[in-house]
Amino acid sequence: METVTDILKITIPALLVFLTAWILLRNLMRNEQDKRKxxxxxxxxxxxxxxxLQAYERIVLFLERISLESLLVRVSSSDMSALxxxxxxxxxxxxxxxxxxSQQIYMSPQAWEVVRNARSNMIKIINTEAEKMPPNASGxxxxxxxxxxxxxxxxxxxxxxxxxxxxEVARII
Length: 173
Known about the structure:
It is built from six helices and no strands. The chain is mainly α. The protein has helices at about 1-65, 70-75, 80-100, 110-130, 140-150, 155-170. It has one domain (about 50-170). Helix 1 (about 1-65) packs antiparallel against helix 6, helix 3 packs antiparallel against helix 4 and helix 3 crosses helix 5. The N and C termini lie far apart (about 75 Å). The longest helix has about 60 residues, at about 1-65.
């Protein structure tokens, strides 16, 4: 009987020490795993935020490039007819849009809709003014007419979209 108590005197404290050590190590490992998960989430968040900001930057650049003043400076030349200018403007807008189409992944659906509406409105303005031109009109006449139309508007569609995008970026930052 004495040997059993001696064994118990040794085993019970050893089991208590083992159990305490096991619980402490298990908690320590869980805390370490949680800490690593949080670090990964934070790092991914930083990366995603950077990519989102780059997407918004590209969209603002797209909107600036399809603003009427910018388009006319880049696309028109003095020897173009109104029809040629009309075609070149629409082609440029479409190619710029297609080039930036993938940015919608990183933007809110509302912001992307505003960008699409700005593009559509620019195309609509160009088409409307081009339809008013006589068949033999020069590109300069169409350019002048387009600029006058934009001046009549309270805010150019691309400018309104840029303002919306800037506000959304301010909320992200």
